[in-house]
């Protein structure tokens, strides 16, 4: 019996996902991954200097390190990567479903960050750091046109990637609708909005809030805007201004967390 095309494609995608690995690099990113029991660790390559700094964490992880000469650091990394003599091959983390990550716990008023076409891994890494600092339940982005889990993202996140859920979904607008059914208010950051993020935060105090951010330049896509409950802006001191998307995420998340 010939399998339908969609079944074959689904099986191929599953096999590809099972085979997918990535290299984390840099002392902070490698250390945090070594100490994360949820991270499947495959291969650790270190120089003598890096080993001396990570020895205790390597021992706790149980992985056998491969020692290498710093002049022959034979790991598939970009030549510009600042690896500090440490690289760890791992499997991507599995954080579970939207419901598992985003459902409010007892006594919590959950906050989320949703990213619409934010593709720069350095921006996403910085956003993950802010999300961890302000206690966001998750950072959510579409599979396509978003930054995947990479070594560069992990290094910028400075360990937050190991602790802060980063979920990539098939369709962002559909996920937003699902979050609305879960009780979330969807606030899209847009410089042309009339309402400020502080005003919206005060209006919906006590309600779960998902803050939606677009890429620098293009901003939110039209469908994403239409799916939001409100468009909000950061209130600048002067008559004009703009923020890097990671800075906007930090300011916006602070406002909806403290509001």
**Count the strands?**
11
Average pLDDT metric? 89
Helix content: 25-40%
Largest sheet: 7 strands, parallel
Distance between the termini: 59 Å
Query: Structural class, from secondary structure content?
Result: alpha/beta
Element order: H for helix, E for strand:
HEHEHEEHEHEHEHEEHEHEH
**pLDDT below 50 for ≥5 consecutive residues: which ranges?**
8-18
Give the spatial strand order of the biggest sheet: 7-6-5-10-8-11-9
| Total of helices | 10
* General form: elongated
The whole-angstrom Rg is 20 Å
Strand content: 15-25%
Structure commentary:
- Helix 5 (121-133) links the parallel strand 5 and strand 6 (138-142).
- The chain is 38% helix and 19% strand.
- It is built from 10 helices and 11 strands.
- It has helices spanning 5-19, 27-34, 48-61, 98-102, 121-133, 151-157, 172-181, 197-203, 222-227, 245-258, and strands at 22-25, 41-46, 65-67, 86-90, 111-116, 138-142, 166-169, 185-189, 195-196, 209-214, 230-233.
- Helix 5 (121-133) packs parallel to helix 6, helix 5 packs parallel to helix 10 and helix 8 (197-203) packs parallel to helix 10 (245-258).
- With 259 residues, the protein is an alpha/beta fold.
């Amino acid at each position: 019996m010939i399998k339908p095309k969609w079944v074959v494609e689904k099986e191929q995608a599953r096999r590809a996902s099972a085979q997918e690995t990535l290299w984390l690099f840099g002392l902070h990113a490698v250390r945090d991954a070594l100490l994360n029991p949820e991270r499947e660790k495959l291969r650790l390559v270190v120089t003598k200097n890096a080993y001396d700094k990570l020895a205790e964490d390597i021992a706790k992880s149980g992985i056998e390190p491969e020692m290498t000469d710093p002049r022959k650091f034979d790991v598939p990394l970009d030549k510009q990567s600042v690896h500090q003599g440490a690289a760890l091959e791992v499997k991507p983390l599995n954080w579970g479903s939207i419901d598992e990550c985003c459902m409010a716990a007892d006594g919590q008023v959950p906050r989320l960050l949703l990213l619409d076409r934010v593709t720069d891994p350095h921006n996403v890494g910085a956003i993950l750091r802010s999300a961890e600092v302000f206690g966001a339940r998750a950072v959510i982005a579409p599979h396509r046109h978003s930054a995947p889990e990479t070594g560069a993202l992990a290094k910028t996140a400075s360990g937050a990637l190991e602790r802060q859920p980063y979920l990539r979904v098939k369709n962002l607008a559909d996920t937003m609708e699902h979050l609305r059914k879960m009780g979330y208010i969807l606030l899209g950051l847009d410089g042309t909005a009339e309402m400020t993020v502080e005003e919206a935060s005060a209006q919906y105090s006590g309600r779960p809030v998902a803050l939606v951010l677009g890429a620098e330049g293009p901003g939110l896509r039209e469908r994403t805007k239409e799916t939001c409950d409100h468009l909000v802006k950061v209130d600048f001191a002067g008559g004009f201004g703009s923020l890097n998307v990671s800075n906007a995420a930090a300011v916006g998340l602070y406002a909806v967390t403290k509001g």
